[in-house]
Amino acid sequence: MKIAKVEALSVAMGDGTGWMPTSAFVRITAEDGTVGWGEASPMLGGIASLGVVARDIAPFLEGKEVLDHAVLLDTLMHRLVKLGPEGIATAALAACDIALWDLKGKLLGQPVYKLLGGAWRTRLPCYSSIGGNAARSVDEVVREVARRVEAEQPAAVKIRWDGDRTRCDVDIPGDIAKARAVRELLGPDAVIGFDANNGYSVGGAIRVGRALEDLGYSWFEEPVQHYHVGAMGEVAQRLDITVSAGEQTYTLQALKDLILSGVRMVQPDIIKMGGITGMMQCAALTHAHGVELVPHQTQPAVGHFANIHVLSTIMHMTRPVELADRWDRGRPVFHNPAEPVNGHFTLSDAPGLGIIVDEDELASRATAITVAQEQRPPASGQY
Q1: pTM, to two decimals
Q2: pLDDT < 70 regions, the chain
């Protein structure tokens, strides 16, 4: 079966305002009309990745065999290597990888998790990932956590800072006070994570980490800048609390370097690096090193479905699945976004990823990202 068409779509989500008002999707159509859906990182709208799909990836994939999936994407990775390859290119490739898995599942009449070897579980607990806390007062943090917990009934909670990445150690006493208030709200047995969003120096991270240990927090996410891999490893090795990182790690080789630095819980994102194929490679790498794989994933539709298909296949799943802010923005384009029921997600056994798209709603919200023929690369792939 050949690939007939590859489309890059910027789609207004939810009410089109607020946090991440647009998302970046790829639709791959086979010659028999079967459609596979993928998603790229929506950071800065995802427009840069969609441009790569439209200009460089679509012309290469169209006319190729669907089942040559891995060879095609590895070829593209090396054709695009001069773009970084981290970030823009890897997100574009991730979207195409996810779409091809969805398409293969539909063509073969099987859910993706079956194609990956089967599921250890089809009902997965979630954790509420609650952002924006750098700008909130202690009381505001407590109110927002209480609201989300009541609505979602999660197995765990993560409080995220989302502060100014150009500054560090801005308000360490205030940060610790917020962490203490959340512990008091949720009680001594609640599982809680703290995501610094790269907000500390090594010294600041050690100070906050020690406080989190005293408060019984379960993990400390991205305490220092992600590009300081050695510093991240140093913090991980000096603290007893589990230090996690990796949502801004875009290749398997970079994830290996993070593990070798001393980080023992890694969080690559399925729509930023490798898609489903890449995440399965991450699973093998972390299993070989005895490291926890707890993917970062904040999108409520295609990325979410791809993520839980992969997680269902992992034998030692140590933490719940992330459920970020504004997950309701998956509607009305998708009929079945990432909505937990009694704190859990349940996998569909429908072919592919099990996504249900409202085509009329999609058509009214989607902007196709296209590139004129004369701006496309030569067939040789040389630039």
Answers
A1: 0.96
A2: 18-19, 379-383
